[in-house]
Amino acid sequence: MDDLFPPFAPEPNEPRPNEARANEARTRRFKPIPVRMIIPNMITLMAVCLGLTAVRLAFEGRFEPAVIAIVVAAVLDGIDGRVARLLKGTSRFGAELDSLADFVNFGCAPALILYAFTLHHLKSLGWIVALIFAIAMALRLARFNVMLDDPDRPEWKKDYFVGMPAPAGALTALLPLYLHFLGLGFGPALAPAALAYLLVLAILVISTVPTYAGKTIGKRVPREYVLPIFVVTVAGFGLIISFPFETLAVISIAYLCAIPFGANQYRRRLKAEATEAALRGAPPPA
Fold first, then answer.
1. Rounded to the nearest 5 degrees, what angle is found at the Cα of 147, between the Cα atoms of 144 and 150?
2. By CB neighbour count within 10 A (0-12 exposed, 13-18 middle, 19+ buried), where does 164 fall?
3. E strand or H helix that includes residue 161
4. Which helix (H) or strand (E) is 32 found in, with range?
5. 202, 213, 206, 205: which is closest to 266 by C-alpha?
6. pLDDT for 11
């Protein structure tokens, strides 16, 4: 019974001789784990609970709280990694758990919610497209994890995702529900439109279309921008609280419209890098 709950090991075991591994296991059994290593994973698990609860709410016909649960899960997904870095509690365990959470919250949950909402009118065809979206999200997350390990990736490329990121894909996938809550009834007649829309998003998720991420924006803000940022933040928070589905619909449409501009900016920067490399006599970037 001692091995029923093995000791929590946030980092993977490196290949070592059997005796060294046994000594390390005994040491870890009695070595406490810092709370800072646990807090980010607890946030991730709360997000998973919200994603699974959203599926239950959808199949009970309670679509508004289901959408809100996905939105809150997306917020927690944006927080857990930053909390881990702030507390210096990042770990391989947390990274793997976060990927699993993203697949559940942003792949499975939106697909099942949309199937319960309108795709079920198309029977097997609707289910197939829901599967395609969920699997596309899994493939996108696997590719993202692999690209993190690329040491030759230029620093400026970290400002862009390859394909649509998982949280954005999930939140924009729920656009038919936002419109339904605003008075556009999504009955059986509009189910084919929702199906085509979800299929296009699945293609964007696994595509190589660059989408702007802004991860390398400076950590310091010019002094004159501080007060405007406060005002915009308060206004945005007020809008999402007072007009949640109107705001989500506008943000989703604006995000989709911004994708071509981000891709065009990426191509310009890539061309500028290739020109600079040619002037230095270096091989052009891939």
1. 165
2. buried
3. strand 160-162
4. none
5. 213
6. 60
Q: Among positive and negative, which fits the CA dihedral 177, 182, 188, 192?
A: negative
Distances (CA, A) of 212 to 15, 84, 187, 269, 270: 39, 23, 34, 12, 14
Q: Report which of 194, 158, 164, 139 is spatially closest to residue 259, judged by C-alpha positions.
A: 164
Phi-psi group of 281: left, alpha or beta (phi > 0 → left; psi -120 to 50 → alpha; rest → beta): left
pLDDT < 70 stretches in the chain: 1-30, 148-156, 214-219, 281-286
pLDDT at residue 283, rounded to an integer: 59
Q: Which residues contact 222 (CB under 8 A, 6 or more apart)?
A: none
The whole-angstrom separation of Cα 134 and Cα 115 is 12
Residue 84 and residue 79: Cα distance in Å, rounded?
9
How many CA atoms lie less than 13 Å away from 192 in the CB half-sphere? 1
- Within 13 Å, how many C-alpha atoms sit on residue 168's CB side? 22
Q: Which residues pair with 211 in a beta bridge?
A: 161
Q: In this structure, how many other beta carbons lie within 10 angstroms of the beta carbon of residue 80?
A: 23
**Rg, the chain, Cα only:** 22
For 169, counting Cβ atoms within 10 Å of its Cβ (0-12 exposed, 13-18 middle, 19+ buried), the class is: buried
E strands, the chain, in order:
160-162, 210-212
The predicted pLDDT at position 59 comes to 92
Q: How far is residue 64's CA from residue 55's CA, in Å, rounded to a whole number?
A: 12
pLDDT number for residue 142: 86
126-149 pLDDT, tens digit each: 999 999 999 999 999 888 877 766
